Amino acid sequence: MSPMTDRSRPLIEAIVVGASAGGVEALLNIFTPLRKGFSLPVLVVLHLPDERNSQLAQVFRHRLAIPVEEVQDKQDIRPGTLYVATPGYHLSIEADRSLSLSLEAPVHHSRPSIDVLFESAADVYGPGLLAVVLTGANSDGARGLARVKELGGITVVQDPREAQVSTMPEAALTLHEPDHILTLQGIGQLLAGLE
Amino acid sequence: MERNTDIELRLLIEAIYLKYSYDFRDYSGASIKRRVLHALSQFECKTISALQERVLHDPGAFMQLLQLLTIPVSEMFRDPAHFLAIREEVVPLLKTYPSIKIWIAGCSTGEEVYSMAILLHEEGLLDRTLIYATDINPRSLEKAKQGIFSLENVRAYTQNYQLAGGRRSFADYYTAAYDYAMFDKTLRQNVTFADHSLATDSVFSETQLISCRNVLIYFNKKLQDRAFGLFHESLCHRGFLVLGSKETLDFSAFGKQFEPLVKQERIYRKL
Fold it and tell me: Which CATH superfamily is domain A16-192 in?
């Protein structure tokens, strides 16, 4: 039985997504099916050149139906909101379900790092987490995704054959076998159907 | 049911507090956990309990661990727009005071201190300013006192300095030797470096400006509020509080006791 249709498993409470090279387009693709009133929080790490005033949140705000915010330190996570990691800072989720930023050393040359977000989110949400790794040119996210799985969450990897850059999905697949390997369209449908 | 790692982590932090009076109990959990797990490999310990035994019985090991628990990531004129805003919006108001006291809380290895001193020097204020630069990490403070930074980093700082409205050549402020830049010691003539913890210590002076940047992100809300309380108590009427570019007073009980002067650059004034 697929974990998604397993009625005995805990409900998904939060979604985390990591993307790198080719990520903006991929992210827009999977979030476009989310309708206004979508109830789960979504947290996104996208690797960008360390450009401190990113326009990503604005771009998303114009193109998506759900509210979008760039993360501020110690902000509470609100349902139905898409949070974009702040460039230059790691993003973590705290036990009280607030967001925190940090300037620890980059992981896989990346800050924010997908592993950092995924590992802290897995700690907090356990089986209530769904994590997605998309296109990218490094191996960030692989370890974090395996950790999500280890703590009972659901893991999704973009089909490397479709990914604009397949390195990141492939790295994720070498570390563990995810619950789903899907195209962007498939991931979009999966997310929209979570409620 | 709590996981073993989380139980061990709490015990370690409690042990550090009881034994060494360093209080990490209200630090942001996710980050402190990562740093402790990272320390395990450095100390070649299999579990946090094993690490706890080491640091409890060996002050030297604790000092080593402290270096990993505090994050000395800093740069001079970090976020140049912030320093430009201080120069343009805050300095004209500071000039109205006959003498000025500034507190740089969590000064780490001193990059922020020298940046501020250079800015004040160029604005003709350094001579009548006293800067308190505080941190919990004695090794960082020692480094800050020396004012020696790697030349490679100083190249990046030079660009920051120019973008921050610097009026001279940045090289005027340091002497290069081998791979290092030694900053002019007159910059720290009026600087007092001191051990101070925002988690356990109290206010020590009235100040006109407090800079605490990228320190509060490592605190939970309760500890952030303690720190804001200290800042509020220390600042004079209409004193300035400046924070890191992604830190905010918005989620704090003290939010209503300050008003933004330059919100984008996290410059606030006490009401």
Answer: Methylesterase CheB, C-terminal domain (3.40.50.180)
**Shortest distance, CA B2 to any CA of chain A (angstroms):** 11
Q: Omega before A79 cis (within 30°)?
A: no
| Domain boundaries along the sequence of chain A | 16-192
Q: Indicate whether this model's pTM tops 0.90.
A: yes
Active site residue A2: no
Q: Are strands B267-270 and B235-243 parallel, antiparallel or unpaired?
A: antiparallel
Give the span between the Cα atoms of B129 and B104, in whole angstroms: 13
CB atoms within 10 A of CB A95: 14
Residue from B111, B100, B152, B171 nearest B135 by CA:
B111
Ordered by where they begin, the domains of chain B are 4-69 (no CATH), 80-270 (3.40.50.150)
Which of the residues A99, A103, A113 would you substitute to probe the B interface, choosing the one with the greatest number of B C-beta atoms within 10 Å? A103
- ipTM of the prediction: 0.90
**Residues of A at the B interface, defined by Cβ within 8 angstroms:** 52, 71-76, 86, 89-90, 92-96, 98, 100-105, 116, 119-120, 123
B111: phi then psi, degrees, rounded to nearest 5: -55, -40
A108, A113, A140, A166: the catalytic one is A140
Residue that has been written with the tokens 């809300």 in this structure: B221
Q: Tens of pLDDT along B33-68?
A: 999 999 999 999 999 999 999 999 999 999 999 999
Least CB–CB distance from B246: residue in A73, A96, A123 = A73
Runs of H (alpha helix) within chain A: 23-31, 56-63, 114-125, 142-150, 167-175, 184-192
